[in-house]
Specification:
The protein is of the alpha/beta class. It has 21 helices and 8 strands. The protein has a 4-stranded parallel sheet. The chain has a 4-stranded parallel sheet with strand order 6-5-7-8, with helices on both faces.
Length: 427
């Protein structure tokens, strides 16, 4: 069964304890080694802008890697937006002896660049989701009304580099955390107990998705705890600010580790954040606690499907959902958990699910920044055309930002799998 697939998760080639990690010359030597393998394979040519840039540079030098300039070596790494498609489809990732890990090579490049050059203050602010969210939510109604006013967008483009055409996530009028404080209730005889890592996207931007999540968890008799938490830290990968990512990671591990040691699982409703907690935290922190936590982190669809395997999942659905086009986020595929959300939605009576495995092209700020907006649209174009051609009753994506980008380019409303389950349950 495809929903039981566990994917191709292996290992990673990323070592912050390597004394040469921040050595620029060592980085470029490693890039040459990786490019030497990539130029002969070229499986990834259509994945993102990184690989066309790499292959064009190699071809212009008649296949001579040693002839590439530093600028040509750097450009593919600069263009990587960490979707990880190349990683989970590459046949040469660790433990293969070649140990190719292009996303982490790009991250290392960006970390060296940040250490040597820093970053624009506007980029730093854009990536600080906790700060932006806390400042914006009290004025959510006003922010949402002015977000698409042309003079405002013109100023944002000139000062912060945010493309005027981009669709920005809405701002909640109150945080999901405040909603949880008022709506968490005791669960009698729970089947499971979990820590909810609710993510910045639900906390500050997509409140309705958060409400649907709470509804589904209670429908399945799950006890919920919500410790203090902050951003998972992955936005800082965009500029290579590893220190900020590490700081965020350490805080979250410290806040959740005692729950894990007392039998709680950690559930995450956004694949990108689940990926960060499960795979990147052990690499960033290199501590037993980070490893211990990572082993109890679950993407929400994967977690709910595990209930089904124990005959604990609530299938008392009231409403059919019709034909669904389900876009699987790249970071969900990188988690290697298979098609669990698709399997859950297929349990709804009179519901058909078509899986669409095409990258949206958004990823973090790539689909927002002026410098990369057109490239993001180009990457996502096959997905947008696919969705428009099918005319399904519902379009669904695990990733809120991918959903936002799909909405911009198709004018279709996009729901999450959890919202679909919530609607199918009814009141």
């Amino acid at each position: 069964m495809p929903e039981m697939s566990i994917g191709g998760l292996k290992e990673f080639n990323f070592d912050l304890d390597d004394p040469k990690f921040y050595d620029e010359e060592a980085l470029y030597e490693e890039a040459k080694r990786v490019y030497l393998k990539c130029k002969d394979c070229r499986m990834c040519v259509n994945f993102c802008p990184s690989f066309p840039a790499l292959f064009d540079a190699v071809d212009s030098k008649h296949d001579n890697i040693e002839a590439l300039t530093k600028e040509e070596l750097a450009k593919p790494l600069e263009l990587c937006f960490h979707c990880k498609q190349c990683y989970f489809k590459c046949p040469y990732t660790p433990p293969h002896e070649w140990k190719l890990d292009f996303p982490h090579l790009s991250l290392r490049y960006k970390a060296i660049k940040f250490k040597n050059q820093g970053a624009k203050i506007t980029d730093k602010l854009m990536l600080d989701t906790d700060l932006v969210g806390k400042l914006s939510v009290p004025f959510g109604k006003v922010v949402n009304k002015t977000m698409d006013v042309k003079p405002v967008r013109f100023i944002m483009e000139k000062t912060a580099g945010i493309d005027q055409r981009a669709k920005l996530p809405p701002i909640n009028e109150h945080s999901f955390r405040s909603f949880l404080k008022d709506n968490l209730v005791p669960v009698k005889n729970p089947v499971r107990k979990v820590v909810l890592f609710y993510t910045c996207l639900l906390n500050y931007n997509f409140l309705e998705k958060g409400k649907a999540l709470l509804h589904v968890l209670y429908k399945n008799n799950i006890h919920i705890e919500v410790p203090e938490q902050n951003c998972c830290g992955i936005p800082f990968f965009d500029i290579g600010d590893l220190d900020s990512s590490i700081k965020k990671a350490k805080y979250n591990v410290d806040m959740m580790i005692d729950y894990v040691r007392n039998g709680y699982d950690v559930i995450v409703p956004v694949p990108t954040c689940a990926l960060q907690l499960k795979h990147e935290y052990p690499l960033l922190l290199r501590t037993p606690e980070a490893k211990e936590l990572s082993e109890k982190v679950y993407e929400i669809g994967d977690y709910l499907f595990s209930l089904n395997q124990e005959n604990l999942f609530n299938k008392d659905f009231k409403n059919p959902m019709g034909k669904i086009d389900y876009h699987i986020a790249c970071h969900l595929k990188s988690l290697g958990v298979g098609y669990k959300s698709a399997a859950l939605m297929r349990m709804i009576p009179n519901t058909k699910v078509r899986i669409v495995e095409i990258c949206s092209g958004h990823d973090g700020t790539f689909g927002v920044k002026k410098d990369t907006f057109d490239m993001a649209v180009s990457v996502g174009k096959p997905l947008f055309e696919n969705i428009l051609n099918q005319k399904a009753d519902l379009v669904v994506s695990d990733c809120p930002l991918a959903g936002n980008f799909i909405e911009l380019n198709t004018s279709r409303t996009v729901k999450s799998p959890i919202e679909v389950l919530s609607m199918a349950y009814g009141d």
